[in-house]
Amino acid sequence: MPSFTVNVKWGKENFKNIEVNTDEEPLLFKAQLFALTGVQPERQKVLCKGINLKDEEWNMPIKNGATLLLLGTKEEVPQEPVEKPKFIEDMNESELATALELPAGLVNLGNTCYMNATLQCLRSVRELRAALKEYREDTSSGSGLAGLASPQAITMSMKNLFEDMERSGTITPVLFLQRLHIAFPNFAQTGESGSYRQQDANECWSEMLKMLQQKLPAQKRSAELTAKHSSFIDQWFGGTFDVEMKCTEADDEPVSKSKENFLQLSCFISTEVKYMHSGLRLRLKEQLTKMSPSLGRDAVYSKTVSTV
């Protein structure tokens, strides 16, 4: 077995009588040098008579007593972190939510999941959170029950709730629920047992948007886009349809064209509709009955809408 004893010079340090086995790969010798110097093998440059040692073969002459030159710097030992790491299994609910960037939870106050789901959905819109942070209370709003049921009260209550959700992992939205019940008494209906009745999340969504629509101004972008929208809700949650109305019973009656603003798209549902896009497309064309000026009576019209 070709085994030799060599010396290694590394900077100001000298390592004597290091055993080298040339039957083994040079990478194992470099591992020995790493143990002695702390220089990672990939950072080492081992020289003998101007020849640089490779990782996979002994491409230099080796003999007993030879002196090898090691070039390379060792990496500094990582400093102990100021704040010790904490494992997920050791975290409480609040710490876990922060680490995983989970949204704050809302406590169900008895069939209030419709409200909680609507609030969580609204809060997921970054632009809405920013607009609510900038919103300032309007001191001219009414007092008493009328004031508590106003768009101002709902908007401020949502602003405060979203700020609380940034500071805590779980929130009990009692104050917002109270404002919602005052503004919309139908959501406060109770059953025979005294618990709140189940409500429709889409209806809650529509009512909340109408409230915010009255208080949040459109964000300032270009002058043209700002003038186009009357509120933040129209700007970020709404759209405009081009509408064509054609009387199917009077071919000579001219097609009427108009524009129609919307805050949500309706999805037509039937046994034939299997995909959402199909249901949305079907709602873009429908028939309705209205007074025909050319016929002087009610007639069937075909209504076709397309996005602007």
From TrEMBL:
Q: Tell me which SUPFAM superfamilies the record gives.
A: Cysteine proteinases, Ubiquitin-like
Q: Where is the USP domain?
A: 104-308
Q: Which domain of life is it from?
A: Eukaryota
Output the Pfam families linked to this UniProt entry: UCH
Q: What InterPro entries does the annotation carry?
A: Papain-like_cys_pep_sf (IPR038765), Peptidase_C19_UCH (IPR001394), Ubiquitin-like_dom (IPR000626), Ubiquitin-like_domsf (IPR029071), UBP14-like (IPR044635), USP (IPR028889), USP_CS (IPR018200)
MF terms in GO: cysteine-type deubiquitinase activity; proteasome binding
- The answer, when asked if Protease is one of the entry's keywords, is yes
Name of this protein? Ubiquitin carboxyl-terminal hydrolase 14
Q: Which source organism? A: Anopheles sinensis
Q: State the organism's lineage.
A: Eukaryota, Metazoa, Ecdysozoa, Arthropoda, Hexapoda
